[in-house]
Amino acid sequence: MAFIEIERLERSIGAHNILKGIDVSLDKGGFLVLLGPSGCGKSTLLNAIAGLQPPTAGDIRIDGDSVVGLHPSKRDIAMVFQSYALYPNMTVGQNIGFPLEMAGIPKAQREADIATVARTLQIGHLLDRRPAQLSGGQRQRVAMARALVRKPRLFLFDEPLSNLDAKLRVEVRAEIKRLHQQTGATIIYVTHDQIEAMTLATQIVVMKEGEIQQTGTPAEIYNRPANMFVADFMGSPPMNMLPGQVAEDGAHLIPEAAPDTPLPLPAPLAPGRKVVLGIRPENIGDDPTGAVPLRLDLPVEIVEPTGSDVFLWLRLGSALLTARLPGNAQPPVGAPYPVAFDMTRAVVFDADSRQRIA
Amino acid sequence: MATTSPGALRRLQDWLPRLVLAPSFALVLVFVYGFIVWTAVLSMSTSRILPVYKWAGFDAYERLFAQPNWWMALKNLAIFGSLYIIVCIALGLFLAILLDQRIRIEGVLRPIYLYPMALSFVVTGTAWKWFLNPGMGFQNTVRGWGWESFTFDWLVRPDMAIYTVAIAGIWQASGFVMAMFLAGLRGIDSEMLKAATVDGASTFTIYRRIVIPLLRPAFLSAVIVLAHMAIKSYDLVIALTGGGPGNATELPSTFMYSYTFTRSQMAVGSASAMIMLMGIAAIMVPYLYSELREEKR
């Protein structure tokens, strides 16, 4: 039995279904990321777990006991919010101590706990300041300290990094990862940022329009996406998608964009079936070892150097494909460039159901 | 236009704003600040029915504070002012919290509460005079329903009449105070309330420890607005009780008017006006000071 079990959870407002039967389970010490575009219901799901928005149907069990109908404060959870949600009229120390105060813990014990958690997060020197006097990163640390100080059995994070600038986001992300590794806490984390999901999660749940698209480890989600939505949502730049038809031999794809360039399929399929071939930019590129059998000379339309990588936009018939080269590559614009296609890493989706079939 | 050189045009542009503002500036200078100075001068003179400029020092102030009537006015102001401010704020905050619970017909209710503020004090005073009149208003109606012994005659009782002024004033201003608090409540981050709920605070604790402390600026504004309205209130008393019965609802403002213009005691009336000005200044100056300091930060 898993530590967190969510079963057929539904929530609707009027005729509008925000969550359409969600099943999630998470083991103790796991880091679950709810990932999806805005409006997919991930925050609603988190609020339902916290008890802030009651579900209309289904069950949530923590450690075997159903918590549906239980007041948020009785669930032994802590939550970190996007806007940090610090109390501006209290000092940092009072903010961190507030949940302890509400739990009726004596002042001496409270102060010892505040000092300990402040040391862990290196905010000991800020305890007498007010939230308004802190930077965004410091506020985020205080918000995490307020959650950590209660030693709850479950942490909930609601897009905690969205209000930080890019550099701080990377720093705090690493901090959260370190905290998870050190404390072994069980965490459910909501984000729309696939990089955050990939770097932090032990398990990712990809959601869209109130339904789970795929549940799996970061590697599974990235390499074996269940459908075209997940494939497209994960990865930047996104996966190349080539619609086409399976050839007579069942082992090649005739791309719509370039019917005279058949591409080998990763697995044999029924001839004539309409499919979409997906291949990530990093699986198209230079091949110094010569181990990849498929090589094509494709004209370069656009070159995008990012420093660490160079992305090429290559023309294949009427389609454009993105390829990734090492950062020191200097491909000429306009001229054909030889690239290797690692078709063993490619995936195939059914054109109608949009589900992965190979 | 050939005669207008670019230099002259620029000078005109520099001077135009000042020219346009000059008349109103002059009017304010004369009719506000000029008359304050004039009142101050009169309060130091021996003026009775008409202004005379014979120096009398603080004689009028001494006579003012020797008047039992003036002490009555100050006592009434203390009762009326403190009730008015405290009850308006308590009631306004209570209504604002109720109205902030995302109820459906808020758009209808809010203007209903705000409406009394749109009435003039004379209308409020007259309406409440009818309503509280024992012979034709509330008391008479309840007696008409059959409760013969019912008595609500505060309006005509010298010891209770000042409370009827407070009731009418509170009825008029509490909706306005509610709007101020409602604006403050709407500015509070909903995630903060969620965080407090998860942290284990009860609704009552959330309001006491987080929401009400955050409304401090709204409290300050409400006190300032209500305090100066209380000191200035004149028309409400005149319409409701006319200062009576006897002098039971005398306020500094009605005192000032009757001494200056009807009792031929212009110096004493001016002195009372100066005391009122000082009272208002004692409230406004610290407020303006703190506001301006905030702006500079």
Automatic annotation (TrEMBL), chain B:
What GO terms describe the biological role, i.e. biological process, of this protein? transmembrane transport
Q: Which GO terms describe its cellular component?
A: plasma membrane
What residue stretches are annotated with the ABC transmembrane type-1 domain?
74-289
| Superkingdom of origin | Bacteria
Where it mainly occurs, coarsely classed, is membrane
Q: Does the keyword Aminoacyl-tRNA synthetase apply?
A: no
Q: Which residues cross the membrane?
A: 20-41, 77-100, 112-131, 160-185, 214-231, 266-289
PROSITE patterns found in the cross-reference section: ABC_TM1
Please report a single Pfam family linked to this protein: BPD_transp_1
What keywords are assigned to this protein?
Cell membrane, Membrane, Transmembrane, Transmembrane helix, Transport
Q: Which InterPro entries would you find in this protein's record?
A: ABC_transporter_permease, MetI-like, MetI-like_sf
For membrane topology, the record states: Multi-pass membrane protein
Compartment(s) of residence: Cell membrane
The record's comment on protein family reads: Belongs to the binding-protein-dependent transport system permease family.
* Protein known as: Sugar ABC transporter permease
Native organism is: Paracoccus siganidrum
